[in-house]
Design brief:
Layout (H helix, E strand, L loop, with lengths): L7 H11 L16 H19 L1 H9 L2 E2 L5 E2 L4 H10 L18 H14 L1 H20 L2 H12 L3 E6 L15 E4 L4 E12 L8 E10 L9 E7 L1 E3 L5 E4 L2 E6 L10 E14 L5 H37 L23 H33 L3 H36 L2 H4 L5 H11 L6 H12 L2 H20 L7 H24 L4 H36 L8 H16 L2 H9 L4 H4 L7
Parallel strand pairs: 3-6, 4-6
Antiparallel strand pairs: 1-2, 4-5, 5-11, 6-7, 7-11, 8-9, 10-11
Bound molecules: flavin-adenine dinucleotide (FAD).
């Protein structure tokens, strides 16, 4: 049995002390999230995560989902009950618009609570997670009638949503998709085709499932310019808007997969199923990106969440497991051996995970606040700057947090030695579950290309220049502060490497696009290191301010922050130099060999 405790104090430190959450109280929803309310929400969310969702994590892994001959799917024992508690607690609508039954609280609060619940049970939280994407797409692109029809029950959690993009021959390259939409002449369409790998495609937890399906309308152009998004419900609605006649769609099978067994990954067959257009005809890509951006931040959070729970279990094991003696003399002389937490190499793993988790949490919450500003601010300039930031940081959050999430699940497993490899301790599940987050919602290689190929150059590089300026100014403003020197020096060095890499791309990628492709993954991680380093420098500054205020109260919380910040700067940040060296070596050796030489 694994353990899990929601890191509430850490979340509050980041939101209140580091990111100045209360500064945004002029934005809709923020004034409702007073410090007391915020703390109460986190505590309630933590209870649900720890007491209800976490005990089901292993059950979900062992039992998986079962498809019956009639195409129905049963989720693991306890999942429906837990989902009912999530729904009844109003968690689905926490940040959703109040006019459709949501609570209108900041997305940042939703993000903070979701981290806990995903740590506790990633597979279970995918059902509401996909629904959030569907809600976002309908809020942004739906007609008034579609919003009134679908949103209240999606936001209330009575119905869940899905994203149907992938087809057997069409994954990353959505221009290849073949699912067809034929107009019925009454505003509805007949959708036909097969989708694969559809998360939460069929299950027993909600009264209806609202599928958002990408399809090609009759006569539409080839490629991505000819795809549209459709709302295709499992049950068509009757005259009073309740689930009525069964639509002609079904789950053909569920995938046997490496992890997230508690989530049903379905092959979905659409056989002239009735649907309505969401957004503009042939504007499916735009509508889909609304879902995808939300979902990408959510998947980044999955990386962080699994890293956190894996870390907590590794710490607990390292404190108990007795093997060998400390290099600096016995630490538990009354026992036959010392706990393995005394060994520097075990410390290396634990500190690496800890330093990443705390900065990753800050980065996820900072990005969520920016997303709130982008959607809620009344000031055009603020909205634009926040939107620039969110666009730039989405591939970084998705790609870096999930790559590292998996690395850390493996690192935590390694702390258990052979006991991590057997199923009993639950570490294998973390490794298996974390792996998918690097693949779906655009594989991480595609995130890196999105960053390098699209986001850097957008609006003449406005977003990236603003980020460089902000981090540079932070270093400059704190240059004279001796206590900040260990943090700002290292951060400035990382920023210099990132700027040099960006300049190298400007000079070398236009004439030779393979240079951009060859640099992309290293560039994304270099970007992530600087973003995480910036979070640590700010956390160090806040911790120092708290200590100066005498806020420590005998607790080692803020001192621990400072040590962890130093660890990050000394042992993680130097990787920026390696990343820069790789980037500026160009594409030559990658591309030199003919395909048959491999
Ligand atoms: C468990 C699970 C759940 C999923 N849930 C959903 C869901 O709910 N809805 C949905 O629609 N889909 C879902 N997917 C599908 C998922 O999003 C795709 O698997 C993913 O987008 C990659 O597509 P693909 O598997 O066809 O790989 P491919 O597109 O064939 O890519 C293979 C590899 O090539 C790389 N690659 C491809 N093109 C390029 C390029 N131009 N440049 C550089 N590298 C490239 C990719 O990064 C990848 O590493 C799910 C998949 C799984 C396994």
């Amino acid at each position: 049995m694994t353990i899990y405790r929601a890191p509430i104090q850490d979340t509050l430190f980041v939101l209140n002390d580091v990111l100045g959450f209360q500064r945004y109280s002029n934005l809709p929803g923020f004034s409702d999230a007073t410090p007391d309310v915020l703390e109460a929400i986190l505590a309630e969310g933590a209870k649900l995560a720890e007491n209800v969702m976490h005990p089901l994590n292993r059950v979900g892994d062992m039992e998986g989902c079962v498809r019956h001959d009639d195409g129905s799917v049963t989720t693991p024992k306890g999942f429906k009950d837990a989902y009912d508690q999530y729904r009844e607690g109003g968690w689905m609508g926490l940040a959703a618009p109040a006019e459709f039954g949501g609570q209108g609280l900041p997305y940042a609060v939703h993000t903070a609570v979701s981290e806990y619940m995903i740590s506790a049970n990633m597979a279970l939280m995918m059902y509401p997670g996909l629904t959030q994407g569907a809600i976002a797409a309908i809020v942004t692109h739906g007609t008034d009638e579609q919003k009134a029809t679908w949103l209240p029950r999606l936001i209330g959690g009575a119905w869940t949503g899905t994203m149907n993009l992938t087809e057997p021959h069409c994954g990353t390259d959505l221009g290849l998709l073949r699912t067809k939409a034929a107009p019925n002449g009454d505003g509805t369409y007949r959708i036909s085709g097969q989708k694969i790998f559809i998360s939460a495609g069929e299950h027993d937890m909600s009264d209806n499932i609202v599928h958002l399906v990408l399809a090609r309308a009759e006569g539409a152009p080839e490629g991505v310019k000819g795809i549209s998004l459709f709302i295709v419900p499992k049950f068509k609605l009757d005259a009073s808007g309740n689930p009525g006649e069964r639509n002609t769609l079904s789950c053909g099978s569920i995938e046997e997969k490496m992890g997230i067994h508690g989530n049903s990954t379905c092959v979905m067959n659409y056989d002239e199923a009735e649907g309505t257009l969401l957004g503009e005809l042939n504007g499916g890509l735009k509508a889909m990106f609304t879902m995808m951006n939300e979902a990408r931040l959510g998947v980044g959070l999955q990386g962080l969440s699994v890293s956190e729970i894996a870390y907590q279990n590794a710490v607990s094991y390292a404190r108990d497991r007795l093997q060998g003696r400390s290099l600096s003399g016995a630490k538990a002389p009354d026992k036959k051996a010392d706990p393995i937490i005394v060994h520097p190499d075990i410390r290396r793993s634990l500190m690496t995970m800890k330093a990443f988790n705390e900065a990753g949490r800050a980065l996820a919450l900072w990005t969520a606040i920016k997303s709130d500003v982008a959607h809620r601010s009344g000031d055009d300039k603020d909205r634009q700057a926040a939107d620039d930031y969110t666009g730039l940081m989405t591939p970084v959050v998705k790609g870096v947090l999930t790559d590292k999430g998996f690395d850390h699940a493996v690192m935590a497993q390694q702390v258990f030695g052979g006991h991590g490899y057997i199923e009993e301790h639950g570490m294998s599940q973390f490794v298996r579950d974390a792996r998918i987050a690097m693949i779906y919602e655009g594989a991480n290689g595609i995130q890196a290309l999105d960053l390098v190929g699209r986001k850097l150059a957008q609006n003449g590089g406005r977003a990236v220049q603003a980020f460089f300026k902000e981090v540079g100014e932070f270093c400059e403003e704190n240059r004279a502060d001796e206590k900040m020197a260990p943090f700002t020096k290292s951060l400035k060095k990382g920023l210099n490497d990132l700027q040099a890499a960006t300049m190298w791309l400007v000079q070398n990628a236009m004439a030779k696009p393979d240079n951009a492709g060859a640099a992309s993954t290293d560039y994304m991680h270099l970007f992530g290191l600087v973003a995480l380093g910036y979070m640590w420098a700010q956390m160090a500054k806040s911790a120092q301010a708290k200590l100066a205020d005498g806020a420590n109260g005998g607790s080692p919380f803020y001192d621990t922050k400072l040590v962890t910040a130093r660890f990050f700067m000394e042992r993680v940040m130097p990787e920026t130099a390696t990343r820069l060296a790789r980037i500026s070596s160009g594409a030559d050796t990658l591309m030199a060999l003919p395909a048959e030489a491999f």
